[in-house]
């Protein structure tokens, strides 16, 4: 993609990940100057602000917007970009960076900013859970429970996330539900129902190794409560080895999913808390979002 003379709006969430470093702005400006792009940097003032900024960008003459933050910020920018029909790029600054890792976007600010100028626009699938946009991985059950607890904490980051997960693991139980996948309904019981567009939550935890963001399919993984001594399950998740061969996993591909649980269960959308529901309507939006991905990553054919 030739970005010579392009006008770019960078939308920065200073509170994403482990905090803001002033050199972030410098790296962004450097990459833009090097590539003759005209750059504007806006900092989000509150949750939800990134949606507004992205939505207004097209009218202000920007060619594309760039989310600088974690999966929550990327989700907000995508909501605005979808409404305005403007392409978006990503500079990952979150704690897990699931979507960015899947898309092959470099994890350092300088390299990610530079990669925007050697990129291709991919028409990426997205989906909604009860009307809320999801780009990466959403979940019902234990991961939703953790996201709802974690969302209320002021001190975030990977260490805090791991601590909370371990503390809550023993008390949280599997739940009963009725699952409808492309119109076929069956009873099931799970600890987590992960609905994946990309392959991973973040930090290379691949809950749906076969997932692609442009296969026009959702990948649902129903996960049983795994005993703590089964460290092989965690090992397999981090090495991309989870499959239907595991007695703890039931993995399916789908165009539409509906779930009814026997009691209210917590859910999350791209890691952001969604509250508790008993009915979940999951709808695919094929090829809906224009995302700048590194051309090199696209050529590998694994996105
Ligand atoms: N200025 C702001 N003040 C408070 N919250 C903000 C502000 N700007 C954005 N937010 C909110 O911060 C939340 C967390 O952002 P984000 O998900 O990008 O970071 P993270 O949680 O650290 O990363 P990840 O989701 O990858 O772990 C989002 O829900 C977003 O709405």
UniProtKB/TrEMBL annotation:
InterPro entries found in the cross-reference section: ATP-NAD_kinase_N, Diacylglycerol/lipid_kinase, Diacylglycerol_kinase_cat_dom, Lipid_Phosphate_FormReg, NAD/diacylglycerol_kinase_sf, YegS/DAGK_C
Q: Which GO terms describe its molecular function?
A: kinase activity
A Pfam family annotated for this chain is YegS_C
Q: List cofactor names only.
A: Mg(2+)
The DAGKc domain covers 3-133
Q: Which domain of life does the UniProt lineage start with?
A: Bacteria
Query: Keywords assigned by UniProt?
Result: ATP-binding, Kinase, Lipid biosynthesis, Lipid metabolism, Magnesium, Metal-binding, Nucleotide-binding, Phospholipid biosynthesis, Phospholipid metabolism, Transferase
Question: EC number(s) for this protein?
Answer: 2.7.1.-
Which residue ranges run through the membrane? none
* Designated name of the protein: Diacylglycerol/lipid kinase family protein
Species source reads Ohtaekwangia kribbensis
